[in-house]
Predict the structure.
Amino acid sequence: MARDDERPSRPFVVSLASTMMLLGSLVQIILGVAFALRRHDEELLARFDAEPSTLLAAAGFSVVVGALVALFAILLLRGNRFGRAILGLSLLGDVVSGAYSSVALEDTVRLIGVAQIVGAVLALYLLYGTEKAQRYFD
């Protein structure tokens, strides 16, 4: 890995992806805390047909996942290959999810599935297929 003073400038797509990941993780943490605080709300319990302990477990999981996403976003910003690999795996999951949506679900969702595949493949190319990205993560 190159020293910080030798590292090429960060590709825009890395900054964009990291920012989106950080914003998403913040929302996920906030929603997790909100669910934990409202775990005894009768309307919420009825909507999800769940017990308070189930909502608390889901809320805790949401907070933990949000914190991990924030950690991976920071790693990505620092040019860490592990952070890029995690994002790459997530994008591959998007491709699989999009493929399922475009084949197994109703017409309006199929178009969203195709768009999801296109977006994920484009992001994978920008993270792994460009010279600038290769230099940044080396």
